[in-house]
Amino acid sequence: MDAVVLLSGGLDSYTAAALAKADGFVLNALTIHYGQRHAQEVEAARMVARSLGVVRHQELRVDLRGIGGSALTADIDVPRDRDLSAAGIPSTYVPARNTIFLSLALGWAEALDARDIVIGVNALDYSGYPDCRPEFIRAFEALAAVATRAGVEGGRFHVHTPLIRMTKAEIIRKGVDLGLDYGLTHSCYDPSPDGKPCGHCDSCVLRAKGFLEAGVTDPLLLG
């Protein structure tokens, strides 16, 4: 059974894809070049796709820099050492990103005659993005039912979010159990020119917290 997996090159999407594969899905990976400053994640996605043995890996370019409005796609400083418990949505939120990404995944899934989409969103250890919440996923599934030929002809699309209620530590432990090599992944929002993580953005902080709480050494620190 085919599934389209949104694969960013980060540890969450890697783990979500691996869980889908363990559940018997045939993986069709979709990676989006959206003008993100952390473009190293695209190469990470390629390595992750190879390690997972995906049957197809499609890379699409949808440059969101023209829209801007985010520290990841515009000339806005990436927040560093931010209080992750602070209220509000950080500037690293990319306007409507997961809606756009899931729409592309939905289109490809329909073309493949697949009805399953996998995304590694998480609503616990995350930066507060509105498009990582269960209510967003439910709303998108409802949209898919009325926005596609397959949906109006009786097909049902299901967006799988295996990590949505897991902590980062739980995600990492699950990945370790699956034998995943997190040294292939990239998480940093604002890496140095040579690709090294900054260690201070939300994503780096959450990654470090997750590995610490999981009692596992981050393989990126061993290099």
Task: Briefly summarize what is shown.
The protein starts with a strand and ends in a 9-residue tail after the last helix. The protein has a single domain, classed as Rossmann fold.
Can you walk me through this structure?
This protein is α/β, with parallel strands linked by helices and 223 residues long. The chain has one domain: HUPs (Rossmann fold, 3-Layer(aba) Sandwich). Helix content is 36%, strand content 11%. The chain has seven helices and five strands; from the N terminus they run βαβαβαβααβαα. It has helices spanning 11-22, 40-52, 97-111, 134-147, 149-152, 168-177, 202-214, and strands at residues 2-6, 26-33, 56-61, 116-118, 158-160. A five-stranded parallel beta sheet has the order 3-2-1-4-5, sandwiched between helices. β2, α2 and β3 (56-61) form a beta-alpha-beta unit. α1 crosses α6 (168-177).
